[in-house]
Amino acid sequence: MRILAVDDEKLLLEALADAIRKAEPTAELFCFRDGAAALDFAAQTSCQVAFLDIPMRDMDGILLAKKLKGMNPAVNIILAADCGDYAIDAVGLHCSGYLLKPITPEKVRRELDDLRYPLRQNPEKRISIQTFGNFEVFAPGEQSVEVGIYSVSGMLVQQLSLPIVGGSAQVSLAGKLSPGVYLVSVEGSKLKKTTRLIVK
């Protein structure tokens, strides 16, 4: 598990890091006191979980969370603050969790046990598909995927080649498909997944 921790206060970041290490000793933990530096790192290294302090000087945790989710929609964002004033923002961002300080290993463990996007073994070798809202493909480790959309009778309706950026690809199918039931096949360099898509 790769975990990102960001807080611009040195002592608070050290306390957060200590709580995370005690809660999940085997995690790869990357700590930053600067939101921009954390973003640069996240662009190069996929992290499954990000603990973000909310009030920070250079870039607050809300904006940082939006940018991280833009890179990887499946990242589990856990916001931290001294009070509950930002809880509505966390809900609006569909964050995985919200921690009130002081942060303890027990609080961190509870969040890691109830992630919005649960971690799987070898996630880089899996393809997952989300078909509510926009059509999203999560395929960490892939450069691109081929998507075939078929009618239930097996006729090819639409074919797409999607580049994978930050572990995922997203496309809007609004207005492109008639109402009905379709079969969707997503194929990467080594793996293939098929699911059902219902268009209303």
N- and C-termini, Cα separation: 37 Å
**Kindly state the mean pLDDT as a whole number?**
85
Count every beta strand, where a strand is a DSSP E run of 2 or more residues: 12
* Major sheet: 5 strands, parallel
How are the strands of the largest sheet arranged? Answer: 2-1-3-4-5
User: Approximately how much beta-strand content do the residues carry?
Assistant: 25-35%
User: How many helices does DSSP assign?
Assistant: 5
Describe this structure in words.
It is a single chain. The chain has 200 residues and is of the alpha/beta class. 24% of the residues lie in helices and 34% in strands. It contains five helices and twelve strands. It has helices spanning 10-23, 35-44, 61-71, 87-92, 105-112, and strands at 2-6, 28-32, 49-53, 76-81, 97-100, 128-130, 135-138, 144-151, 156-163, 168-171, 180-187, 192-199. The strands form three sheets. The chain has a five-stranded parallel sheet, with helices on both faces. It has a four-stranded antiparallel sheet with strand order 9-8-11-12, with no helix packed on it. A three-stranded antiparallel sheet has the order 6-7-10, with no helix packed on it. The longest helix has 14 residues, at 10-23. The protein starts with a strand and ends with a strand.
Break the fold down into its secondary structure elements and pairings.
Layout: E1 2-6, H1 10-23, E2 28-32, H2 35-44, E3 49-53, H3 61-71, E4 76-81, H4 87-92, E5 97-100, H5 105-112, E6 128-130, E7 135-138, E8 144-151, E9 156-163, E10 168-171, E11 180-187, E12 192-199
Parallel strand pairs: 1-2, 1-3, 3-4, 4-5
Antiparallel strand pairs: 6-7, 7-10, 8-9, 8-11, 11-12
